[in-house]
Each structure stands twice: as C-alpha cells, then as structure tokens.
Amino acid sequence: MVKLVEFLKEPFQDKQWPAKIAIGGVVFSVPILSFCAMGYILNAARNALKKREERLLPEWSNWGKLFTDGILYCVIGTAYMLIPFLIFMIGMAIGGSCPLGWIFGAFVTFLAAVASLGAGFILPMAICSFAATGDFKSAFAWKTMQEKIKSTAKDYAVTYLIALGLFMAGYIVSFVLGLIIIGWILMPFLFFYLNLVIMRMFTEVYPQGEEEKEEDTA
User: What single-letter DSSP state applies at residue 59?
Assistant: First the structure.
C-alpha cells in the first residue's frame, strides 16, 4: 500500500536536496532544456526500481543521457495521449459545423476525458517498464503491462488516484500562487517535485519480472 507521507518526505532525506531540486525547477522551466528534467525524473525512477536501501536523489550529471531519456519519456507520454487528443480535435471540428455542435462537442469532450483517464492510467506502468528494462519498446508491450497491472491492481489503482489528487492539489496551489508574482517562479519547482514523488510511488507498486530483477542484481 502506498504510504503517501513517506514518499512526500523522501526527496528531503537527501542532504543535497535543496541544490538538486533547485536545479530541477530551473531546468524544468526552460523550453527544450526541460527534457533534461524529465530524464532526471526517469533516472530517479530507475534508481528506485533497483531497490537500493538508500534511495537518494540522483546526481545532476551526464546531461546528454538525461536529455535523450527525457525525449523518450515525452515520446511515450505523447503516444499514449495521442488518441484522446485526436478524439477531442475531431469532435471539435465536426461539432463546429453542426447546428447543435455544442452538444456534440460536449459529448466528444467527455469521451476524450474518459480516454485521457484510461491512457493516463496505463502511462505510469509504461514509464516504469521503460525505466526498469531500458528498452523503449517495453513501454508499448500491451500484454505484459496488462498482466503487471492485474498483478497489483488494487495498489496500482490507489496509487493512480493519489497521483491524480496530487496533481489537482498542485494545480490549485499553482492557481493561488499565480495570484502573486512569486507564485509563477515557484510553480516549476513544485511540479518538478510532484513528478519525482508520483513516479517514485509508482515504482513501489511496479511488479518487476524475473529478467528485470536479474538485471538489477547484476
């Protein structure tokens, strides 16, 4: 079962957390360079999946690797969210040409939202699979991921709901902070931290296969 408070506190157990999260927030806020921040989050998940006793934040090093990992991370996310996005865009295009287009548009928006939730439910498992194996294709191994989700269905579903709650809380805090100038400065740091925590939670419920365990102990 996910222990939320422990995961929220975990990044602060690293003695260098102020510098590491500060770098993450700055990098996260810069276009293109933000790929490095996503690569860092993936690297943190990869370290956690190794089941080390001390799960400290990774060092900010090997920026080329972080950049390419971040691109792959985003490609996976884009691929999963592409169908919901297309449903939404097609619905808006058709709806805008109909007399009762707003009704059709509302219906399609609802379908797109449902599809987004479904894709978002599978996406963390895909990211964890890529982090665990290092194989980009593993993020799209549908049958394997379905089996992994089924094997830990309850904990995975709870983790997903908590992740949604954290993102909603993050957007609420962002809205409040956005009312003051300093809020726009703090938002990248907040969402970088939340992404670290959320991916860390999913690594805890990710069921590793025997081949992944052997790789970790090698």
Answer: P
**Per-residue model confidence (pLDDT) at position 97:** 62
Q: Collect all residues with Cβ–Cβ distance below 8 Å to 41 and sequence separation of at least 6.
A: 73, 192, 195, 196, 199
Which stretches within 62-209 are classed as H helix? Answer: 63-95, 101-133, 142-151, 153-177, 181-205
Give the Cα-Cα-Cα angle 145, 10, 30 (nearest 5 degrees): 75
CB–CB of 132/46 below 8 Å?
Answer: yes
Interval 177-218: pLDDT, tens: 777 777 778 889 999 999 999 999 999 999 876 445 545 444
What are the φ/ψ torsions at residue 64 (nearest 5 degrees)? Answer: -65, -40
Residue 141's nearest CA partner among 152, 153, 129 is 129
